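REQUEST ID: PR-0412
SUBMITTED BY: lab tech R.K.
PRIORITY: routine
TASK: structure prediction, single protein chain
INPUT:
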Amino acid sequence: MKHLIVFLSIIMASVTAMAQDGKDIVTRSYKVDGNCGMCKKRIEEAAYVKGVKRAEWNKETHMLAITYKSSKTTDDAILKSVAKAGHSSEKVEATEADYKKLPECCHYKTNTCEH
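STATUS: complete
OUTPUT:
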């Protein structure tokens, strides 16, 4: 819990500092379904579309923190890319076909991951 508070404080400070620069840098966090380290890697890689500066998914909280240039991409475009990789978010649902492409341990709907 302490780590989450520190993490959120850093994000808020970053957003404030970036907003003062007048740049179009945006930081947002979204809940993204996943299970393990393999999911983490896949989610973060899928989130790195053009314009994304940082993407970090937390396995315990299932929160994906993204920092991106709003002139280059949108949070919807990023979350659609993550959904195409098989991981649903609070805004964009992965198709059943994309979900079924995930390795067995990454099937977050079944909650059967052993690592």
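NOTES: The first strand starts at residue 25 and ends at 31.
REVIEWED BY: pending
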